[in-house]
Write a structure and sequence with these properties.
The protein is α+β, with helices and mostly antiparallel strands and about 350 residues long. The protein has helices spanning about 95-100, 130-145, 160-165, 175-190, 195-210, 255-275, 330-335; strands at about 5-15, 20-25, 30-35, 40-45, 55, 65, 70, 80, 85, 90-95, 105-115, 120-125, 220, 225-230, 245, 275-285, 285-295, 300-305, 315-320, 340-345, 350-355. About 25% of the residues lie in helices and about 25% in strands. Bound molecules: zinc ion (ZN) (2 copies). One zinc ion (ZN) binds near residues 16, 21, 86 and 88.
Length: about 350
Amino acid sequence: MPCDVLYYFWVKVLPCPECSAEVDLRSSYVFARHAYVKRNPRAQVLCPGCHGVFPAQYSDESVDCPACELRFDPRVGPVRRSKARCGGCGAEFPVAKTACAMGKPPGHRLYAKLVLRRDGTRQYLPATSEDLHAYALAGRRLRSMKPPKPEVQIQDGHNTRQVLSYGYSSWDQMFNDRQRLALAILADGIRKLEPCAERDALMLLFSGVLEFNNMFASYKGEGTGAVRHMFSHHVLKPERTPIEANLWGTPKSSGSFSTLFRSRLLRALDYKQAPFEVAVDRRDGKTRGRKVFGLSPPMGGFLLDRYPEEGLPAGSVYLSCGDSARGVIPCSERSGAHGSARSVSTKPGASCRRTTYA
Ligand SMILES: [Zn+2]
Ligand SMILES: [Zn+2]
């Protein structure tokens, strides 16, 4: 029975420098667990013998594969810290140095998937030849489409050194073929819309989708937002066991276009129409947040392309991009501005300052 795949599980691989056997760069054979493992100790284990997947307890020190009867410690994978051990010849080799010597990032092997069944339940399954065929098909379609790709070299810097030392050299290497295909189709669909504010909002959402749909994203587990996006670390950490999410998404997806559309864009529009502040209630020794509406008027208004000398007319919005230290609006005008006009000043970089006059 066909059903949607929520997530594909990949592992980085390197050829052993001694015998060329492919070595999984994983430190554990437990590939999925609950975010609150003490309360929910059930985990999913990959068998290194037959590549089957089966459930076990997270704390298990020894498991028997139900398919091939191999007994092994699921907590111990071929990688320990920065070194990997080849299961074929037993040679130990440094991961980053070996990848860097190849002049390209390590390859990836698809080994499992989480599917959403028709009855709403989820099931972990091993990757099959059909999965590999579907992936290869996506690659062929991508190459025939020839979409624009961000072939920009990664510059040397404090936060890029780690990926450079893993053999990465350009940003497009952070996505797999199917992710690039889905992103290309989505971007093309948005680009074809009439230029308008809604199209800009969808393009902004597309940018957010990139964070969750790349080969630096990983699996947080069950009982939480499943995808840990690539910027959850303050460095570009090459992920040894990345997760490929369903980019368009299902109602049960995390980090997909359709779920972020609801959780980010629709939520932002709700806030725009009815802004609120959060008040803190302390009752019975407990602290709770409560939304207080009506303190600010709904956002929006007509946009001005320059700040008028006589001050902002009521209901207008002025946006300025520049150095916020320079202050785009004189203080005297700020104090004199009344009504519902707003000024938004944004500074290049991370900080954004908004001044509202109500
Ligand atoms: Zn097995
Ligand atoms: Zn070897």
